[in-house]
Amino acid sequence: MEDRALGSQGLTVAAQGLGCMGMSAFYGTTDETESLATIDRALELGVTLLDTAESYGPFRNEQLLGKALAGRRDAAVVATKTGVEISDDGRALGLNGRPEYVRRALDRSLRHLATDHVDLYYLHRIDPGVPIEETIGALSELVAAGKVRHIGVCEASARTIRRAHAVHPLTAVQTEYSLFERGIEHDGVLDTLRELGIGLVAYSPLGRGFLSGAITSPDDLAQDDWRRTDPRFQGESFDRNLDVVREVRRIASAKGVTPSQLALAWVQYQGAIAIPGTKRRRYLEENIAATEVALSAAELAAIEAVAPHGVVTGDRYAPEFMGTLNG
Of 9, 78, 116, 263, whose CB neighbour count within 10 A is largest? Predict the structure, then answer.
């Protein structure tokens, strides 16, 4: 894969990254052996950006990544996150952007990752009770101390991004972006990133797997798969969204690629670094092949016709989580 500059602060990554969350949490049964093999294969195929967070597991995903990178830390650009407070015994305690927690969480993440630095450290969610300037100030101190190389924020509004960037230059903003979720094109976030030279990292670029075409019924999901609570996978919303997926599949079939590859290629054409999550080598290889997919103007227009902004039915998250977005 070709390398790309992520933002304008000197960080370079491969054109597609790997989201590691599902290897440890949220998406049904996990298999450490296959997960480690998937990370091995990703590095072998040129993936560099590996994305995790202290809240994934909790902690287990960072520990998995530390194990995978033992003896080859420099082969990867490690991104992890703080700001969703986790007690040392693994209990989620809500949002916490206070400087003292950020510092403590980073030291804990370094232990779990078995490394002395994080390449990209994100504020996972914006804590409304702490001025963003205070949190970013703490992240800036971690950069000065050499424990963090670059910083970013997740799911932030354009205004918050500007305030954060004024304190310390942001390398990246991570947010949901896909054919199913194009809100940043219309709320000022994408324009702000381009203006300020901040990179865009797109999580859930396959609409949490919906755009892969592999899910044809909610019953395809494991009983402990959190997507069973996702409004877009519920009832009438599921049926309407499946109709969109069928149209995406039609365009992909005519081109001779999979729906996943078409959807990922579209995200790449928007200038984002996609981090599709997978815990299996076969899906990883399918996803990476999307970096070789070229889209013509006619194909981009056809995609736009079937998946314009607002085409998806249902909120992004269940109601109890919607309030954490776009702080």
Answer: 263
